[in-house]
Specification:
With 166 residues, the chain is mainly α. Helices cover 51% and strands 0% of the residues. It folds into two domains: 65 residues; 62 residues. The longest helix is centred in the N-terminal third of the chain and has 14 residues. The protein starts with 13 loop residues before the first helix and ends with a helix.
Length: 166
């Protein structure tokens, strides 16, 4: 005698099965997508939730969750959904302005690159943002693959006649 509820029956069309099988064989697919596709295919073949969980090394609750999503939303239910969270305080336009600000030379007669503290001051002075911490600015610069401290000196020479000499 079985325990718990009866597993929901999953029926996939031929095209859906083919696309999920291709996904499981693709070497560049995300592991979570492959696992979800395998759950769908095994459920379509009529395997129990417990058997699928044991075969894939995941919990019964995980398999049950994806079976339910498949029944309610179809194969589209296997895709990622947006997750809750606080929206960004600094928008994309402001992030781009901060990146441009970091690309400017520090001083006409001094260092080639500004420090994070100088960048924070400039951003607040110019009204790019009302407030930003050094660490937040550093994360934004890293996300933009910008490392002002690693700029080579000859790119931003303090020499005023650098362009003519080159």
């Amino acid at each position: 005698m079985g325990r718990g509820r009866q597993a929901q029956v999953i029926k996939l069309s031929r095209e859906e099965r083919k696309s999920l099988e291709l996904l499981t064989r693709r070497g560049t697919a995300e592991q979570r997508q492959v696992m979800r596709a395998q759950i769908a295919l095994m459920a379509h073949r009529g395997e129990s939730t417990t058997a699928i969980a044991q075969a894939l090394g995941v919990s019964v609750q995980t398999v049950s969750h994806w079976r339910t999503r498949l029944v309610r939303q179809g194969v589209e239910g296997l895709q990622e959904v947006s997750r809750p969270g606080r929206p960004r305080r600094i928008g994309e336009a402001q992030r781009l302005e901060l990146l441009a600000l970091a690309c400017e030379p520090a001083e006409p007669d001094g260092r080639a690159t500004p420090t994070l503290d100088e960048l924070v001051e400039r951003a607040i002075e110019r009204g790019v943002t009302k407030q930003i911490s050094r660490s937040h600015l550093q994360r934004i610069l890293q996300a933009g693959d910008l490392r002002p401290h690693r700029v080579k000196q000859w790119l931003h020479s303090p020499d005023p006649q650098f362009r003519q000499k080159v």
